[in-house]
Amino acid sequence: MACAICPLMSKWTRKLKSTIAGNPAAWRLVKKAQEVKYDYQYFRFHGPYSGSLASTKEINLEFSSACNLRCRFCALDHLKPKSYMSTKVLDKVMESLLHDPRFSRVKTLNLHNGGETLMHPRRVELFERLAHYKKIFHLKNKAYPRVILLTNGMLLREKLSRTLLSLHTLDEVGFSLDGGSPEAFEEMRVNARWEKFAANVEHFIRLKNELSPKVRTFGISIVPHPHPLNDSWMAPDFQRIARMLDSVEYRRLHDWGGQVDIGEQQEVNKKGCEMLLRQLVVLPDGAVTVCCNDLNKKGVVGNVLETDLFDLYRGQERMRYVHLLKEGRKAELELCKDCASF
Predict the structure, then answer these.
(1) For the chain, percent of residues with pLDDT exceeding 90
(2) How far is Cα 303 from Cα 290, in angstroms, rounded to an integer?
(3) What is the rounded CA–CA span in Å between residue 141 and residue 1?
(4) Structure confidence by residue, pLDDT tens digits, 185-201
(5) Could you give the angle at the alpha carbon of 112 between the alpha carbons of 245 and 56, nearest 5°?
(6) Which region, left, alpha or beta, applies to residue 141 given φ > 0 means left and ψ of -120 to 50 means alpha?
(7) Within a 13 Å sphere around the CA of 304, how many CA atoms are in the beta-carbon half?
(8) What CA–CA distance (Å, rounded) separates 16 from 32?
(9) Which is it for strands 172-176 and 58-61: parallel, antiparallel or unpaired?
(10) Whole-model pTM?
(11) Average pLDDT for residues 263-284, to the nearest whole number?
(12) DSSP state of 340
């Protein structure tokens, strides 16, 4: 059973991240702490006396590689072929979590990566599979991971909201709401429409209070310079929607591992990467990459349809990332060499 304080911690973690992101000195301290943590985690899970337990705490499932928006700050390659996750791929991952005790540290399933989850043409079927596995986990007295959906909200119409909430699969739903005003929102999130987004959020919150009140909601909001990382300066309509959510993380743009020019220099974390040890990302075709910063398959280490998930975790290609980052040799990794985000 999940700890009852988890939703509260999530809220305060987002507030803390917003505060730290606006303080360069605090951010440098966080980066140094991440290096120390990486050394410890490396020794614990990959050192000479480590066991077989995986360090992975969360798995990202990308249901769809397609996105209906063209956000100005996104690194997703919209020209690459679109793909959608099959139940076969989803089952491979869930069976590993169900039967392989080496993944017992996995506490979260993030339903997002580069594409928009709700663009999957058979999205409800995949959510039904997650509900199916939730029942099996409970029958076997196993803790089921928290399921977190992050969406741009444009496709989360009232009917779909009702369907997803009725499955009682989701623990948290996050919305991307950038800019601070309806006009800036539409300018930054090309193809999005504020009125439709706001209506979908309102419908969802009303329905979740009716059907599944334990579901938490959160927002992730990109704040342009020179505005502070809070909502005090934002337009009333924007404030109203943001304050309907349980929490909002206000953040600056990040550069998607150096793939996007955001017009400013960022201090690069020279050693280690918390995301690498904490995450595995499963793409729609079953390919597994090392980090949610990888929107275009630069860090693929294998495929769950061909190789057991733990073997990919312990495999030579992923371990190359683990060892090189431990030694501070980030420049030798195409995916990581310019990354300043983590």
Answers:
(1) 69
(2) 12
(3) 9
(4) 999 999 999 999 999 99
(5) 105
(6) left
(7) 28
(8) 17
(9) unpaired
(10) 0.88
(11) 79
(12) -
With beta carbons less than 8 A apart as the criterion, state whether 216 and 146 touch.
Answer: no
Tokens 């966080």, residue? 30
CB-CB neighbours of 244 under 10 Å: 17
And the tokens for 72?
Answer: 């100005």
Pairing of strands 58-61, 279-282: parallel
Contact (Cβ atoms closer than 8 angstroms) between residue 274 and residue 39 = no
Helix H or strand E segment including 310: helix 309-313
> What is the pLDDT averaged over residues 124-138?
98
Tokens in use for 286?
Answer: 């079953």
- How does strand 300-303 pair with strand 287-289? antiparallel
Residue 62 · residue 85 · CB < 8 Å: yes
C-alpha 77 chain-centroid distance: 18
Residues 214, 208: Cα–Cα separation, whole Å: 8
pLDDT tens-digit map of 16-71: 655 665 567 776 787 788 888 999 999 999 988 888 899 999 999 999 999 999 98
Residues ≥6 apart with Cβ < 8 Å to 42: 272, 277, 322, 326
Q: Which amino acid is at 95?
A: E
- Give the DSSP per-residue string, 8-24: HHHHHHHHHHHHHHT-H
Give the pair of three-digit tokens for residue 296. 């275009």
Pull the structure tokens for residue 247.
């929490």
Phi, psi of 224 (to 5 degrees): -75, 150
Q: Where are the alpha helices (DSSP H) in 266-308?
A: 274-278
Q: How far apart are CA 48 and CA 39, in angstroms?
A: 13
- In this structure, of 69-83, 98-112, 235-249, 253-267, the range with the lowest mean pLDDT score is 253-267
Query: Is the Cβ–Cβ distance between 187 and 246 less than 8 Å?
Result: no
